[in-house]
Amino acid sequence: MSHAQQVTWYKQLHDLNKLNQNTPIPKAKTPNLRSTGQDKEALALTQVGYSLRKLKASYYSQGNRARKILAQRLRDRWTTSIIAHIQAPNGDRIVAPKAISDEFATHYESLYNLKYDLLTPSTFIEDYLSDAPLPTLSKVYRDALSAPITQQEVKDTIKTLPIGKAPGPD
């Protein structure tokens, strides 16, 4: 399918849809709209088939090597992640990469610039925790949790580990 045919089909479909929106036509009298829609589906399927064959051919010719295909995919990903412009708080449009970077730095600096020092002790947290209705452990549970781990507990735990697996730090 040539590009000219594609443009013609899209124009016909657009014109028929616009005509149908202005003066709705019963479904029985819209064969042109249906046939144009079917042509559009056929065109889309043809384009998908072509793209799939092209992709398979490139994978076949490149094999298991990550050269052009990887470079192309990385380039495509890189171009989609570029920030072309931003709008500054004063309404100006910023397009220079350095100015965009500086504007982001200024924004996040003001966002995370805390008004108090985290290193100085605060009684706010202590007051909140003392007033909060938090559950507490009984003396029996506290003693069991703070007791030293015995060799027998370690042996029993090792026996329950799956065979062929090494215990890790977690």
UniProtKB/TrEMBL annotation:
Keywords: Receptor. It comes from the Eukaryota. This is Metabotropic glutamate receptor 2-like. It comes from Pelobates cultripes.
